[in-house]
Amino acid sequence: MADESSSAARLQLLHEVDPEGDHIRGTWTGESEVVVGYQDFLCPYCRRLRPVFRRLQESLGDRLVYVYRYFPNERANPGAELAARAAEAAAAQGRFFEMHDGIFDHELPIRRPELLEIAGRIGLDVERFARDLESEPVRARVERDVVEGRQNGVTGTPTLFVDGLRYDGAWDYHSMLEGLERPVAARVHRTARVFASLPTSAGLVLLLTAVLAIVCANTPLAPLYERIMGAHLGVGPVGSLLSLTTREWLADGLLALFFLIVGLEIRREMTTGALASWRAALLPIVAAVGGVVTPALIYLAFNRGRPTAQGWAIPTATDVAFSLALLAVLGNRVPVALRVFVAALAVVDDVLSVLTLAIFFPASFMPIYAIPVLGCLGVLVALNRSRVYARWPYVFTSLALWLSLNALGVDAALTGVLLAMFVPTRPAPSPAPLLAQAATALAALDHADKEARRERRDEAKLESEPVWEWAARNLSAASERLLSPAERMERAVAPWSTYVVLPLFAFSATGISLAVHFSSPDALRIVEGAVVGLVVGKPLGILAASGLAIAARLALAPEAVTVRQFVGAACLCGVGDTLALLMADRAFSPDQASVAKLGVLVGSILAAIVGLAVLYRRAPASTPAR
């Protein structure tokens, strides 16, 4: 049975169908429905799928093109490799599908004598077949499919790809027929999955919405854009707790979902991944502190002794959303450990930015609301320790926490990070009991179906039998147990966060007018401080602090990350955050704030260009970060 790991499996077929090298049944035309199957001749699940394929061929006729690729599992099915070599030896005599059908139709077990018998029955030169069975070219051909399958994330059989996209639906006839014929809804779903499988899709959507926002803010659409972003939405009078502008709802409300995903990823890495060691976890903390202090000092150096010095915090905030999106644009050029490091650094950076706003720019800081914040955190701790796995208690408590943080004057989006720390996890289950539970449920259904057919009862009535509901509950329970509450929450929220929340946030945050006035004598110093602080100060502080921590053996460098990659990621951290724009509003008058925001925009663009240029070329594997 297919066992797909989310970290290894790839949705798209990496190696396209080769009409010359692949084993293909059917006539390939522009309207063909192509099914590529990585299968094992002795796998019981592959053998049970045979009747389904026969029905599909009867229904679709010449439109169905079936491609067989080898993926024998010798450990689970002894003799599987020999059966695969037998099919390839038959292919050398132009009889692949005759041998394919002969093996699948033969009762198990199938050993060498049975294979020779099938070879003779389908008209092969048996002596040549026996020689080819042990030949090196035949072994290499089978191994090639296995290697390519593993590269494509195949871990079990059967694993199917329909028109180049992995099929994760049910294996019954009607489900597979719908997957092949693809009605409108299925086509939309398939297109969305293809786009989401691209490593650059998230970054592309984010960058496009950012560009759209800049266009809207600098064209005749600007008044409409500002009216929409500045509109007050919510309950109560303007200025009340639940009456925020559209921009504030997107930044403080929806963005909490993104921080929930970031928090869950960091938590997973801290328990079982790259940050499991305290020395590894310490590195992003130290780096974040260095990345805040250094740009602040650079800004102060440009504005020493001037009133504009109060904007020192503007270049200190890193935009985790854009930084991670830019890393996503580079796809596999960026190691997973480096993404985790940047995500962890950015979360610490956001915490420092929020503290900076609360302490140095306390425009609406209300300490009294710290009490309900602590109360909500206490409830989350209690729910976690009581092993409450239902979602609704966490949802209601998170809403109360969001309101309390908002009233406190702290970035309420951090609700997502705090919630991620307390969503309960479960130890991974033992597969054997779950297999027994699922097999028992399906066996009961199969028995009931056979009884109905024997008695010539309408099989549609089987759905009204008690066994149907009982089996459905057991299968759902077994399936649900495979994921912890934290993993289920991450799977449910991640697509919304990536393709809805972040683009909306980018659209609201990056709509900066480029028509600023440099009438103030200090305007140029504000821009210089912000740009140099982001482009030079951020990476310099991160690299210096990280280098000192690693040299002192207090922290560990991320695994499999080269010096070039680490430097490039540090440069990308110079992409300024929306909190920097909020700091500009708190520190300056509207005219000076516009100048500062332009400096953040220019600095962010330069930091992104420098970071992408450094990361674009893969560093040699022999130069790990030290």
Structure description:
- The protein is mainly α and 626 residues long.
- The chain has helices spanning 44-60, 80-91, 96-105, 112-121, 126-133, 136-151, 173-181, 184-197, 201-217, 222-230, 246-272, 278-302, 320-329, 336-360, 370-385, 392-408, 415-422, 431-454, 466-481, 485-509, 523-551, 563-572, 578-587, 590-616; strands spanning 23-25, 33-39, 64-70, 159-162, 165-166, 232-234, 243-245.
- The strands form two sheets. The protein has a five-stranded mixed sheet. Strands 6-7 form a two-stranded antiparallel ribbon.
Structural class: mainly alpha
* Number of continuous helical runs: 24
Report the C-alpha radius of gyration, rounded: 30 Å
Kindly report the spatial arrangement of strands forming the biggest sheet. Answer: 1-3-2-4-5
Query: What is the number of strand segments?
Result: 7
Note poorly predicted spans: 1-9, 619-626
Q: Helical residue percent?
A: 55-70%
Taking the sheet with the most strands, its summary is:
5 strands, mixed
Average pLDDT across residues? 82
Shape: elongated
Percent of residues in beta strands: under 5%
**What is the end-to-end distance?**
43 Å
